Amino acid sequence: MLEIKNLHATVDGTEILKGIDLSIGAGEVHAIMGPNGSGKSTLSYVLSGRDGYEVTEGEVLLKGQNLLDLAPEERAAAGVFLAFQYPVEIPGVPNTTFLKEAVNAVRKSRGESALDAMQFLKVLRAKVKELGMSDEYLKRAVNAGFSGGEKKRNEVLQMAMLEPALAVLDETDSGLDIDALKAVADGVNALRGPERSMLVITHYQRLLDYIVPDRVHVLSQGRIIRSGGPELAKELEAKGYADIIEAAA
Amino acid sequence: MAASVETVEKVQSLGERYKHGFVTDIEMETAPKGLSEDTVRFISAKKNEPEWLLEWRLKAFRHWLEMPEPQWAKVDFPPIDYQDAYYFAAPKSDDDKPKSLDEVDPKLLETYEKLGIPLREQEMLAGVAVDAVFDSVSVATTFKKKLEEAGVIFCSISEAVQKHPELVQKYLGSVVPAADNKHACLNSAVFTDGSFVYIPKGVRCPMELSTYFRINAENTGQFERTLIIADEGSYVSYLEGCTAPMRDENQLHAAVVELIALDDAEIKYSTVQNWYPGDENGVGGIYNFVTKRGLCAGRNSKISWTQVETGSAITWKYPSCILKGDNSVGEFYSIAITNNMQQADTGTKMIHLGRNTRSRIISKGIAAGRSAQTYRGLVSLGGGAENARNHTQCDSLLIGDRCAAHTVPYIVSKNRSANLEHEATTSRISEDQLFYCRQRGIGEEDAVALVVNGFCREVLQQLPMEFAVEAQKLVGISLEGSVG
Amino acid sequence: MATEALTVSEIEGRWRDLAGTLPGAGIDWLDDFRAQGLEQFRASGLPGPRLESWKYTNLPRALRDRSYTPAATAQRTSLDRVASLLPAESTRLRLVFLDGRFSAEHSQLADLPEGVTLAPLSRVLRDAPQRLEGLLQAADYDRERALQALNDALFDEGLLLSVSSGIQLDTPVEVIFVGGTSDEAVESHQRLVVSIGRGAEATLVEHHQSVGSGNGLLNLVSDIHVAAGAGLTHLRVQETGDESVHLAGTHLQLERDARYRSLAFTSGAALSRHEIDATLLGENADVTLDGAYLLRGRQHGDTTSVIRHTVPHTSARQTYKGALDDRARGVFQGRIVVEQDAQKTDGRMLNKTLLLSEKAEIDSKPELEIFADDVQCAHGATAGELDADALFYLRSRGLSQEGARALLVEAFVAELIEDFPVEALRPALLERLQHWLLGTS
């Protein structure tokens, strides 16, 4: 599904990613763990095409298509979804409007017809129900005045609506208490499927108790220094990053 | 098709009425170019006006000659050559009114369709009566009957001068005196047409009243004059939309709108202004120098201005409220969008005179391209304005690094029991928001339109439904090419 | 000899008599500087309410029935003591001016630390006039700045404070202007020249006071330059007598990483106006302009400021709060200008006024003028009376109506005083605030 080959990227002229190789098969969930400053968030922005993140070497293929030539919205249409660490507030724009714009933009670029208001609301209401959220969410402006947990659940709702091929979850656990974390993880797990790959980026092992990955990679100073099964996350939790990084050096 | 037949009849009846309305001994359809006392006399004669109105016009004209141009606005344009314009133009078909819709100039119909008011579908726009001003003379008025039943007078101001001279004489110039400012003064001297509305005591106007103005003929300045009187306990919502075709030269549009709300009356006045803004190099476009003012004359009266200003090369406009009646309420909700080389200096004045008067100002300014925009507002709490309240929120959004946004509020409080709060912010459109939208698949220009519409939401919500949809689309259209 | 106040013909006449006797006369650059100021004033005349920034302050009307004796020719009586804002035990550097004349007797200039110049201008112009060259900032050619132009022409006293690079001047520099020391109404044109060198730090305490009702007129211009990485903390207390006219203009320039923080406390004068023109010339320059105004009777107090952001990454904060009683009138005109290159500007301005009587008036005009897009700017203004709920709450806890009002006004203004970084100066300010409150009805 996703192939990252020798990816190098700079921010403001400083190299942050220094050669990442990563391959995620269809339906697989991989976790990337790493200390602060290891390049985790940079990787999520490079994959989604944010301005200011310059790829200097390497390639990123999604289902064989080169993502790096595409604008952010084209990548979204190609199936890339980023669940933001800090979901952005857009005052005055109701969630429903936002989602409808997004879903129809993506449908349009995939050559599908736009959903009319009634069809759209029907799908949306069903997803909201599945995720155990309240309809009241939909009328409120995007993320404005949402609690941390609400914002993250809203990201999951968007993911459910946009049905991406690749979901990148950037520190989705940050700022959540255990109940909110479980609720978000349940939502994510419900979206796992044979045609969807996920890249879960996190600092802590805690999230991985609830979203159990197929593979775990440790990122340090812009490189993946170790990969393993879910047990690697436990080892990290027990030993801390310092030991693992030292051992790998 | 019943609808078409009815419309045809209306158009015909209108034609007949106007034949009577015009003086026949003047052959010309267009006043000679330029501005002099003779122009003023020509217009007045053409409209068969009573002596007092001619005198009023001439007085305004003499004043206009003496008056300096207002200099304080942050707008920049070469001096206007007032002699290089026509001050009166009637449609060519004036003496040969269409007998059926087939005879109506298809271009005219097309224009109306673009404006969203196809005559053939008038009836479908249930609840909207349209008095369309094409250049200077009304050509179609609909829903007259329903309004007449309610006792509402909704007609062109020329007609009102003939049929309701006592109301016109009593209220014309009572809120915006002829000598108020140079532009209003010019309007007073040469105004050609516009709308007149009178809502009798206790009547809630059964539908939204709407006027589309349009500048069509070349070199024609348009000087509408609108007068709306809401008698005791009445209510009216009035919608005004404006557009103009592309012309290379600048055209002057100096309108005056006066609103009078008596005891317990309410007037809601909404404008979507999309006059031609000139091209991306600032060539052409309308000079929109408009004086709009409402007088809350009575107790518990309310006047609410809502405007969406996206057009015009230069906008100079301050819809205001004089809150004279105790407990009266003034509101101003504004969205101003400037792009390319547009300049706008707009805002409001809330003059609190009566006790317990309230005002609310929400202004959203969006500047893009090389445009310059100024919010200029006055909130004055007078000595007699016991317990008056004002709240002002005034936000500016900048798109691109060559535009400018200014905020110039004047705040005068002479009453300790009065309470006033003013907040203003200026910021750029957020990179984070745009990226978030784009990551969800929304293209850059759509993302800008979405974020800007969100920024304007509090104001858009104030618009009547059919305007709100048009206004949201306009936001997107106006900002085309502002990013990337 | 009394003359008609500040008309062009009167000033021209005085110029003919005085020009040759002004300190520094005969120094080419200074003669040119003065001549330019005169020319400009001659072209503008006294600024009147037709000028936009003078809309709310009618100076010609305020001066109509007044006449003044120039400081150079006035007779002064002696003065026993001069009030200070600093605690009694403080070490001092102090200059005192009595109606525009330097008073060595009341001043304290001994033990100047190395690298610090502090001297009355008359002395600097006599001994080392070259030290001033480049430090005096001429008024822009602008009719609204006519008073500063007049000062350019006529200033004859003031002070120079110059702190060399890297010097941390711990002792506050106190400069005290005393009015009302003459039987005549004295008009003086003074100049306060402050230059803080690279990385240096200083604190300036500027204090305007009067003997009695102090019926004079002061036209003061300050030229303040804060070099890269330097910092200046400036307290300005204007509590002159209620017959006096106080006109002040501050030119402020901040270089890269420079910091300037001021608190202007205004409770004096029949008519006062403080014009501030602050320019942020270097990145990371940071300016805080705070002000408190407490006016009553028929006092008129005007603050008109412009903060210009000319380069990226600069920040400004301005908070002016005041209480107006009786028929007092307050004017606040603040303008933040963000020039095209000044991306990432962070500018905030707030003006809050309590109207304590039915006849008091505030005219507030907080402006933003923005030519760059990547900025965060905001301004706010409020005007009104004390919060009725808060008043009621306090009274329900046993406070009298007057006590409750005083407490709320005090809290409203004290916030600014408590934010002022020089702790040693706060007690004197709080004392003045409380004293003022005793006089509210």
Automatic annotation (TrEMBL), chain A:
<dbReference type="InterPro" id="IPR003593">
    <property type="entry name" value="AAA+_ATPase"/>
</dbReference>
<keyword id="KW-0067">ATP-binding</keyword>
<dbReference type="Pfam" id="PF00005">
    <property type="entry name" value="ABC_tran"/>
</dbReference>
<protein>
    <submittedName>
        <fullName>Fe-S cluster assembly ATPase SufC</fullName>
    </submittedName>
</protein>
<dbReference type="InterPro" id="IPR027417">
    <property type="entry name" value="P-loop_NTPase"/>
</dbReference>
<dbReference type="InterPro" id="IPR010230">
    <property type="entry name" value="FeS-cluster_ATPase_SufC"/>
</dbReference>
<dbReference type="InterPro" id="IPR017871">
    <property type="entry name" value="ABC_transporter-like_CS"/>
</dbReference>
<keyword id="KW-0547">Nucleotide-binding</keyword>
<dbReference type="InterPro" id="IPR003439">
    <property type="entry name" value="ABC_transporter-like_ATP-bd"/>
</dbReference>
<feature type="domain" description="ABC transporter">
    <location>
        <begin position="2"/>
        <end position="246"/>
    </location>
</feature>
<comment type="similarity">
    <text>Belongs to the ABC transporter superfamily. Ycf16 family.</text>
</comment>
Automatic annotation (TrEMBL), chain B:
<dbReference type="Pfam" id="PF01458">
    <property type="entry name" value="SUFBD_core"/>
</dbReference>
<dbReference type="InterPro" id="IPR000825">
    <property type="entry name" value="SUF_FeS_clus_asmbl_SufBD_core"/>
</dbReference>
<dbReference type="Pfam" id="PF19295">
    <property type="entry name" value="SufBD_N"/>
</dbReference>
<dbReference type="InterPro" id="IPR010231">
    <property type="entry name" value="SUF_FeS_clus_asmbl_SufB"/>
</dbReference>
<dbReference type="InterPro" id="IPR037284">
    <property type="entry name" value="SUF_FeS_clus_asmbl_SufBD_sf"/>
</dbReference>
<dbReference type="InterPro" id="IPR045595">
    <property type="entry name" value="SufBD_N"/>
</dbReference>
<feature type="domain" description="SUF system FeS cluster assembly SufBD N-terminal">
    <location>
        <begin position="143"/>
        <end position="205"/>
    </location>
</feature>
<dbReference type="InterPro" id="IPR055346">
    <property type="entry name" value="Fe-S_cluster_assembly_SufBD"/>
</dbReference>
<comment type="similarity">
    <text>Belongs to the iron-sulfur cluster assembly SufBD family.</text>
</comment>
<feature type="domain" description="SUF system FeS cluster assembly SufBD core">
    <location>
        <begin position="213"/>
        <end position="455"/>
    </location>
</feature>
<protein>
    <submittedName>
        <fullName>Fe-S cluster assembly protein SufB</fullName>
    </submittedName>
</protein>
